[in-house]
Structure formats: C-alpha cells, structure tokens
Amino acid sequence: MIEKHLDITTADGAMNTFVVHPDEGGPKPVVFFYMDAPGKREELHDMARRLASVGYFVVLPNLYYRRTRDYWLRERTEAGMAEMFTHMHATTNAMIVSDTRAMIDFVDTQPEADASKIGAVGYCMSGPFVMHVAAAYPDRIHSIASIHGANMVNDLPDSPHLTAAKIKCEAYFACAEIDKWAPPADIDKLEAAMKAANMKHRIEWYPKAEHGFVFPQRAVYDKPSAERHWERVLDLFARTL
C-alpha cells in the first residue's frame, strides 16, 4: 500500500492528514475516517490501513489541527483527560463541515481516488460529524457509519438528530450497550428523527460492549464486537461505494 503524511489546505490552515490506499488497481472509492477524541495516532492509522487493504482511498485528518499538530492522549490521567476534553469541546460541527469541503476538494485532484464515491466513518466524538457532513454534502457523501457515536441527541440547535431530513445516503449506527455518551433514550430519539425523515438507516446494539470497544489498545476493547463492526462497515461501503 501507499502511505502519505501530508497537509490539506483548509479555510483555517494546514490540516495534517494520513492518507493510505492500495498501490495498484486504482482509482479507488474514498473513505473519510474521522478520529475519536483521543486524537490521530498510530492505532487509527492501523485501522485506516485495514480499510485501505480491501480497496479504499482513506483520508484520516487531524481534526485538532487548529490547536495542535501532534496531540493524542498518551495517558488516561485526570490531567490528560482534561486536555483531551478541551480539544474536543473546541472542535465544532461547523468546523468539520468546513474541513470536509477541503477534503472533498483534495480527493477530487487525486488520480488514485475515485471521488465520485465517498463514504465516511466516525468514532465516538465523530459520530455526530458524519451526520453533519452527510447533510451538508448530500451529493457527495454516499454512505456513513457512526460507531459508538457520542452525544447524538442534545438540546443544541445543531444536534445531530436534527440533520436527518437533509441526509440522503444510507447510514449505519453501532451502539454499545454500556455507553453513558449514547444512552438508549437518546438513540430512541435519533431513530425517531430518522424514521420521520424516511432516512435509510440501521441501528445495531452491541450487547455487553462498552464505549470504545473497537479500539485494540483500549482496556474496553472487545474483539468479537470490533470484528462485527468491521463486517458491517465493510459491507456498507461495498454496497454503496
């Protein structure tokens, strides 16, 4: 495979980004991989490589680039978690929509990428982001997956569930049974909004799994659930891209 660390020029600066894709047989459909709150790190690079290995041009940006080019959660101490949440809360849905415009412009210029087919996957804090991106660019985003997405329903005017009427693509939601960031009541409201909008979607609960279950280096990693998530995400992209 071909791997690159490069900058994508956005409205707010230079977004350092990991790009990986097969070294032959292109152009390949595109997958935008949105990081979780602990930041862009080698663990996520490995996940991006797994996507690329089955035939995708994967773009994994550092969503905290406005604040730092080299952050990832190294220690889960009180101070470490506080720093992570500071970065997370400073990263808005509007910022990600703007950054995604730059990502689309980037893949439109890459000969190895088939930018007519773009999917998006978001983990934890990025669960909301993929909904906003799909709503903002319905003519470019062909499918989205939200994996134990956090805060999918809230009282703010940009709550993710309010985007449902603008989303035209298919969506998959993997929900951990044990997840304070996405309790069943919130997911019920999300589902109601999607049904009201006639949005094509699937919500799947992962029994006994905890928030963060997909990440191999996390204490809550659950391999059977993680592998199921890969099966679902790869099937979604195979059908829609």
What is the fold-level CATH name, i.e. the topology?
Rossmann fold
Q: In which order are the strands of the major sheet placed?
A: 1-2-4-3-5-6-7-8
Averaged pLDDT, please? 97
For the record, what CATH class applies?
Alpha Beta
Q: Would you list the SSEs in sequence order as H and E? A: EEEHEHHEHEEHEH
Quaternary status: single chain
N-to-C span: 20 Å
Strand content is 25-35%
Given the C-alpha coordinates, what overall shape results?
Answer: globular
The count of helical stretches stands at 6
Report the biggest beta sheet as strand number plus sense, adding barrel if it closes: 8 strands, mixed
Number of strands: 8
Which regions have little confidence, pLDDT < 50, spanning 5+ residues? none
**Helix percentage:** 25-40%
The CATH architecture can be given as 3-Layer(aba) Sandwich
| Tally of separate domains | 1
What is the rounded Rg?
A: 17 Å
CATH superfamily: Alpha/Beta hydrolase fold, catalytic domain
GO molecular function, one term: hydrolase activity
Protein name: Dienelactone hydrolase family protein
Keywords: Hydrolase
Domain Dienelactone hydrolase: 15-240
